[in-house]
Design goal:
The chain is an alpha/beta fold. It is built from 16 helices and 10 strands. The protein has an 8-stranded mixed beta sheet, with helices on both faces. The protein has a two-stranded antiparallel ribbon with strand order 2-3. It is globular, with a radius of gyration of 22 Å. 44% of the residues are buried.
């Protein structure tokens, strides 16, 4: 039983620390594998680019998103100025998933400034709206983004810079959480961890997942975009199948407001993980190393291993408490677990303690892994996430 207990704890360690430490070690042993934020190419080299903003009832934030996007730089000009040119190098499309609020009317207000509306007549989901927009896209490069995400002014220029490398097929922005006092138990901490992990994956071979809120891809990879799989994973998988890389772009920041409560965090995590598990099951060939080589190891380590953490952690805790009476170091482990549980409980019951890292991290661990466990149970019971609703972040 001791061996099984230690194995459970090892798998928890591997999922969060072992995998990134292996990537770090491999990267230190290799040279020449980096796609850094090279200086943008000369203005005449900027390829035609299409920005697609996918929306579903985003009347509260869309006007600000469009104004911001029009002021982004591409080459030496603003997007708004380029859209007024006869043969513009930029195209801006809003893909509406049959929005039934004022979203579409807001887009029409911007028609004279070059913004195009592509609307589904019936609700079909985020990927179906994106696929319809892609069919109208003229750019060689396509940047997908969400309405609640705020981009830095040079984001489009850096997308173009990364795609100057012929081995790059997809480029992911970094996520940046803007938290206010009282918001989010530990989302910002976790996002910083994920960005660090992505940088290691990008340097090693390829990202395992793109940021669903903002990423760029070559249009040649977007033909017949799947509608049953999240586009950020489907297009990354297609990138790898084409022998290209998905890379992390630290100079492209997609900022959003953190969710306000653990309940919102929990609900969003359940939905996200359930969709992720469904996606992995639908595209399980990516787990076959005979087809995808070392990339399969990356996927196994970043996705299924992480989804199994709540079960390994539960098994490790149960084993430790049983063995505590027989072995002094299992007694120490059990004592440490009790302290870990107590800090999470203190963080959940006290707004003041919730803002302290010593409570924030344990609380986020339990909230997120409880959501992962529930998502796994829902999947086994046959439940799937069919419809798409924009995340509560940024609200």
């Amino acid at each position: 039983m001791a061996e099984l207990t230690l194995f459970c704890f090892f798998m928890v360690f591997y999922a969060y620390f072992g995998y990134p430490l292996l990537l770090l070690a491999f990267n230190l042993l290799r040279t020449g594998r980096t796609i850094a934020g090279s200086p943008p190419p000369a203005p005449e080299a900027y390829p035609p680019l299409t920005v697609i903003i996918t929306v579903r009832n985003e009347e509260k934030v869309l006007r600000a998103k469009l104004e911001e996007t029009l002021q982004l730089n591409y080459g030496a000009d603003k997007v708004e100025a380029l859209l007024q040119q006869p043969a513009s190098s930029v195209q801006l499309i809003v893909a509406s998933d049959a929005s039934d609020d004022a979203t579409d009317d807001i887009v029409r207000e911007f028609a004279s400034r070059g913004v195009e509306l592509v609307r589904l007549r019936e609700r079909g989901g985020k990927e179906r709206a994106q696929r319809e927009a892609v069919s109208h896209a003229r750019g060689e490069l396509i940047v997908f983004t969400d309405a609640k995400i705020s981009l830095n002014a040079e984001a489009l220029n850096f997308f173009a810079a990364y795609f100057t490398s012929p081995e790059v097929g997809a480029v992911s922005s970094i996520d940046r959480v803007e938290s206010a006092p009282g918001e989010s138990s530990g989302e910002g901490f976790y996002v910083r961890y994920e960005m660090w992990l992505r940088s290691l994956e990008s340097h090693f071979l390829s990202l395992v997942g793109l940021s669903g809120s903002c990423f760029g891809v070559r249009k040649s990879l977007c033909a017949d975009l799947a509608v049953d799989v999240p586009s950020d994973f489907a297009l990354l998988l297609r990138t790898r199948q084409a022998g290209l890389r998905g890379v992390h772009a630290p100079q492209i920041a997609g900022s959003y407001r953190a969710v306000k409560t653990e309940k919102e965090e929990f609900t969003r995590k359940v939905r996200t993980v359930l969709r992720g598990i469904s996606t992995m099951f639908a595209r399980r060939e990516v787990l076959n190393p005979l087809r995808f080589g070392v990339f399969s190891w990356q996927v196994w380590s970043h996705k299924p291993a992480r989804w199994l953490v709540p079960w390994f952690f539960t098994g490790g805790c149960a084993g430790s408490f049983v063995l505590a009476a027989k072995c002094w170091w299992f007694l120490l482990i059990s004592a440490g677990l009790v302290v870990f549980f107590a800090l999470a409980l203190l963080g959940s019951s006290s707004a003041g303690w919730r803002q302290k890292t010593i409570c924030k991290v344990p609380l986020f661990f339990f909230v997120s892994n409880s959501a992962v466990a529930l998502a796994g149970i829902k999947f086994l019971l046959g439940q799937r996430t069919i419809t798409w609703d924009p995340s509560a972040k940024g609200s």
